[in-house]
Design goal:
It is built from 13 helices and 13 strands. It has about 350 residues and is of the alpha/beta class. The longest helix has 18 residues. About 50% of the residues are buried. Bound molecules: flavin mononucleotide.
Amino acid sequence: MYGLLKSALFGLPPETTHEITTSALRVAQRVGAHRAYAKQFTVTDPRLSVDAFGQTFPNPVGMAAGFDKNAEIPRALAGLGFGHIEVGAVTAERQPGNDRPRLFRLPDDNALVNRMGFNNEGADTVGARLDAEPLPDVPVGVNIGKSKTTPLADAPDDYTYTFSRVGDAVDYVVVNVSSPNTPGLRELQGRDQLAAILEALQDAGASPLLVKLSPDLHQDAVADAVELANDLDLDGIVATNTTTERPESLSHPHAGEQGGLSGAPIRERATEQVRFVAERTDQPVVGVGGVATAEDAYEKIRAGASVVQLYTALVYEGPWVAKRINEGLVSLLERDGFDSVEDAVGADL
Ligand SMILES: Cc1cc2nc3c(=O)[nH]c(=O)nc-3n(C[C@H](O)[C@H](O)[C@H](O)COP(=O)(O)O)c2cc1C
């Protein structure tokens, strides 16, 4: 059924498609239609429920950051059957992001390249919206990034300001130091810079607090970041963001566009990082990167992810993606004799 709609949507530039989709979901949310369609998309099964960083996730398949940057449609997205929604990235300042075009499809590769550059309405506006609007009854996290014009040295204040505006309403906070599209941002993954940001946020009361890492980090740097997360008693690690690398397997000319690659080509790499992180911490890991099927989600869960997220697969698979993954997960758990998703977390470690 998504086939027809997909051909129409794929005939338009990707960002236009995103805007149309978002507008439709905004309307659906305003008139309450999400409550009706949620019945079509939601899989309710106690075996799918996961407790992690103080939250109860009704199922382990979440909406990754970047789709709902301004926290406009969290209830409409929850209605699509996602077990949690991560809104943002939000920055302290309102930003237009990079010039268009800045989002590219690689259909033959089931991938996207984006260089959005943290386009968002800013912490004041998004914070006011989060405070005013009811949130869905699944956990909602906020992904926070650094404003483009803020020097790296002032990053702790910038992140803390954003947290002070958007943190109260949500269930968890993710520090994004891994987007490839804000110059210098990924340098903040270094131990001293990251410690300064995380400590400032902890002092400001951010809890649960997680950090999202790049798949391009060298293993030593990942190990350092995990050690820091352990030392600071952080609540979890999100692995991974998009990559600036381009696997040779990519066939579409858009592979040459600058930005972060997401989708199927980063699946394995992201799973490797989930495993690497999970082997080094007792804190929950959120697995993201190339999850499109139940098998993909299960692979990350067995590698140590407590919950998973996706973005690119919603574009290629359509609105039934969370339902399909959740139904498939139940079958995989049954096949392998696990009583629940929680039982399967880290089974391959
Ligand atoms: C258009 C686009 C915008 C994104 N924006 C953000 C963002 O603002 N913050 C963030 O942490 N990740 C962002 N991401 C990365 C996703 O959250 C996710 O980590 C990545 O796409 C890998 O998952 P996927 O393969 O399921 O898409 C974005 C991804 C895409 C495709």
